[in-house]
Amino acid sequence: MKFEDLNLAEPILKALAEEGYTAPTPIQQQAIQPVLDGYDVLGCAQTGTGKTAAFALPILQRMVSTPRPYNPRGKHRPIRALVLSPTRELAGQIGDSFTRYGRFTKCKHTVIFGGVSQNRQVNALRNGVDVLVATPGRLQDLMDQGLVDISMVELFVLDEADRMLDMGFIGSIRKVIAKLPPQHQTLFFSATMSKEILALADTILNEPVRIETAPVSTPAEKVEQHVFFVDKGDKQALLEHLLLDVTADKVLVFSRTKHGADRIVRMLGKIKIHAEAIHANKSQNARQTALKLFKDGRARVLVATDIASRGIDVDDISHVINFDLPNEPETYVHRIGRTGRAGASGVALSFCAQDERPYLRDIERITRTRLKAQTDHPFSSSGAPSSQEQGQQRQYHGGAPRPQGHQNPNQARRQQKPLQQQQRKAQP
Ligand code: AMP
Fold first, then answer.
1. From ligand 1's centre to the CA of 272, what distance in Å?
2. Does 236 reside within a domain?
3. Overall number of domains in the chain
4. Same domain for 253 and 171
5. Which residue from 108, 137, 303, 369 has the highest number of Cβ atoms inside 10 Å of its Cβ?
6. Residues 148-192: pLDDT tens digits?
7. Which among 25, 309, 332 is the best mutation to test ligand 1's pocket, defined by most ligand atoms within 8 Å of the CB?
8. What is the percent of the chain where pLDDT is above 70?
């Protein structure tokens, strides 16, 4: 399927082409049409599946294809779409997505969240927006002050509903919903579908179309994952030590910063390991050359930042090495999904310095996996957790652990899981 098949307006298609998106992701394929057709949606999907565009694109389409209604309560445009997000970071990312996908449209949006002064947010609201992205607490606060009017909302999105409940936002959410007009369409997304979530969905959705995609954490099943507790200053030496293993023949290293990526490449060059870096400071040409050298096997190591890694489409990566742990656990799942592709097995090695321990905990929580700690290497940090803290530990005898896994047949089946769509008559 192509985006063109979804009847999206030209300005939206143009933005998608500039983003480099060639085809909709599975959740986008499933969600966009029902949303355009006016159905409520109950989506089971995690971050990383393309879920933001799955609701942002049909919202933008609605904004460009139907005339803005007259706002009897003010001279500015009314809020036509409201997106609730649990955290300020996520709200910001959603706002960025509207900026990117909507840049050739006349749609205006703003993001409001707590923890900062409300003045700028209130000014943006006073100037009028079509789409409002908000965290529940700040929205309720501004509504209580009479500074936000959501009585003309046509589309309401509740994103990451499970996290909303965990964070205790249910009261605010109910108060917000009570102020929405009776005729509105609701899109409800949650990574998990507990009884509590389904009960909430049941009270706010009207015969929804159900959509599911494979959880983002599944690629990890065929990837062997290890963690190395190491002092920051020893990370480079540990990397070089791990590269003594000849089975680590196509290695993707993730660095948090562009400068870090360049430094790794320089240091590996000194010991005659051909490494290339791709990051935002490199021209498109330089990135493509680096990628080609890596694909062809002429560069054994590719060092990437997360942003630049989006375009990496290489099937036979033997090892992913997280030189720095990402602060978003979903990013970890994306990174390690680069190895173990197309049914092959893979190895993911993560370096964890003292200050990265909280990131590791988050990763282990969302992947529901305890990463195997490798302590038997020359650079094990003095502060590595004890075996009781870490649970099972593995002896490590030099070089990188080898791939052993095989594809879990259940995983392939799960990814094929058919849509459970419950069709209903289109609402006006
Ligand atoms: P999300 O799950 O919304 O956080 O999206 C995860 C990542 O996938 C983001 O970096 C998006 O920019 C990217 N993305 C979303 N849709 C597509 C697509 N159709 N093609 C390529 N990348 C996409």
1. 36
2. yes
3. 2
4. no
5. 303
6. 999 999 999 999 998 888 888 999 999 999 999 999 999 999 987
7. 25
8. 85
pTM across the whole model: 0.59
182 Cβ contact list (under 8 Å, min separation 6): none
Query: Going by CA atoms, what residue is nearest to atom 5 of ligand 1?
Result: 50
In order, the DSSP letters of 373-402 are EE--STTB-TTPPPHHHH-SEE---SSPPP
What are 188's strand-pairing partners? 42, 158
Segments in 20-83 forming alpha helices (H): 26-36, 51-65
Query: 415: how many CB neighbours lie within 10 A of its CB?
Result: 13
The answer to whether residue 218 sits within a structural domain is no
Tell whether 242 and 311 lie within a shared domain: yes
Same domain, 192 and 232: no
Give the position, in ligand 1's atom list, of the atom nearest the Cα of 45: 2
The verdict on the CB of residue 24 being under 6 Å from ligand 1 is: yes
| Structure tokens that stand for 368 in this block | 């529901």
Q: Is the residue at 149 inside a domain?
A: yes
- Give the span between the Cα atoms of 40 and 158, in whole angstroms: 11
DSSP strands (E only) in 191-294 = 209-212, 223-229, 251-254, 275-278
With bands split at pLDDT 50, 70 and 90, how would you rate the model's confidence at 144?
very high
Which domain range does residue 422 map to?
Answer: 223-399+408-426
User: Hey, which of 6, 52, 94, 332 would you mutate to test ligand 1's pocket, going by the most ligand atoms within 8 Å of its Cβ?
Assistant: 52
Q: What is the mean pLDDT of residues 341-361?
A: 86
Q: Burial letters for 173-203: b for 16+ Cβ neighbours within 10 Å, e otherwise? A: beebbeebeeebbbbbbbbebeeebeebbee
- Report the distance separating Cα 338 and Cα 332, nearest Å: 10
DSSP one-letter code for 317: -
The gap from C-alpha 406 to its chain's centroid, in whole angstroms, comes to 26
Residue pair 229/240 in contact by the 8 Å Cβ criterion: no
- Tell whether 21 is covered by a domain: yes
End-to-end C-alpha distance for the chain, whole angstroms: 27
Which residue CA neighbors atom 12 of ligand 1 most closely?
50
Q: What is the CATH number of the domain that holds 198?
A: 3.40.50.300
